[in-house]
């Protein structure tokens, strides 16, 4: 089997059709959502997402089903993104795509489409790291509204179903990883604990809704003691599982009778772990430009807790719009826009990677 290097070859060459207006078509297909966006000079003109509801039946994403759905969705989603943006195919300056991390079959669909589009139009191809794109979502601007963007250095908590990281941005291209999860991610803890309670997939948003009606101090669960700025959530999942096992053995209706309180207590525990590390990172770095990104950044409890800490510590807090929290092509396009300015293009030998370093 051929092994490909973790970094793509960067091409810095001239293209005859480069214009002062930089318009990028972006493709995101790392998991189960097919998304296309059009970015012009750093502004989001369109951001379309086709969801795959079929995975709810299985309680999680089925990779083979996801890749097949991407093949069916990608052409109409791209067409709609261009239509909403009011852009023609010949007005696109470059094509950006998610290289990884993600499901390999899903990534292949987006990568192949981007290569074909760029080849036919003879325009640059830009590969984007999915995790870095989540952080860059804070720089997505839109016409007709006040756009707040962070200054540098910028400290960001990236929290999603697959990753929990603390990152410092020095500029639009330089990011330093301060802390990472050593096992499970926060989003995975939400989803797995929700599944144990019999809640539908994805469980995180369901827990968020139930928690609003519950008592966050009703139950106590184990918190990991991890040195430094790293995270761990496997112990919390185990603690939650054993707690329910023992209570259900005593009362078979325990979960249904305490569902809101269980959700609120679990959510409080996860948020305390996340916010505790974020506060520590801010103190250690002296950075007060703070943001949260990734799917879990849509959690209402996390947003409230971050806002409270921002007032306490004098942070300049940035929370992305809800449409930029989940996987979306706009964040890919924004990242690609700044790579375009540096003329960081890739060649057509590039391949997607299921695992890729931050």
Low-confidence stretches: 1-9
Structural class: alpha/beta
- Report, as a whole number of angstroms, the end-to-end distance: 24 Å
Average pLDDT across residues?
Answer: 92
Order of helices and strands: EEEEHEHEHEEEHHHHHEHEHE
User: Measured on Cα atoms, how large is the radius of gyration?
Assistant: 21 Å
Briefly, what CATH class of the largest domain? Alpha Beta
Assign a percent range to the helix content.
25-40%
Q: Do you know the CATH topology of the largest domain?
A: Nucleotidyltransferase, domain 5
Q: How large is the share of residues in beta strands? A: 15-25%
Give a structural overview.
- By secondary structure, the protein is of the alpha/beta class.
- It has two domains: 10-140 and 325-346, Nucleotidyltransferase, domain 5, CATH 3.30.420.40; 154-319, ATPase, nucleotide binding domain (Nucleotidyltransferase, domain 5).
- It has helices at residues 63-85, 104-121, 130-136, 186-196, 203-211, 234-250, 254-257, 259-285, 300-313, 329-341, and strands spanning 10-11, 23-28, 34-40, 43-50, 94-100, 125-129, 154-159, 164-169, 175-180, 289-293, 316-318, 345-346.
- The longest helix is centred in the C-terminal third of the chain and has 27 residues, at 259-285.
- It is globular.
- The chain starts with 9 loop residues before the first strand and ends in a 12-residue tail after the last strand.
- 46% of the residues are buried.
- The model is unreliable at 1-9 (pLDDT under 50).
Helices and strands, with pairings:
Elements: E1 10-11, E2 23-28, E3 34-40, E4 43-50, H1 63-85, E5 94-100, H2 104-121, E6 125-129, H3 130-136, E7 154-159, E8 164-169, E9 175-180, H4 186-196, H5 203-211, H6 234-250, H7 254-257, H8 259-285, E10 289-293, H9 300-313, E11 316-318, H10 329-341, E12 345-346
Helix pairs in contact: 1-2, 3-10, 4-5, 4-6, 4-8, 5-8, 8-9
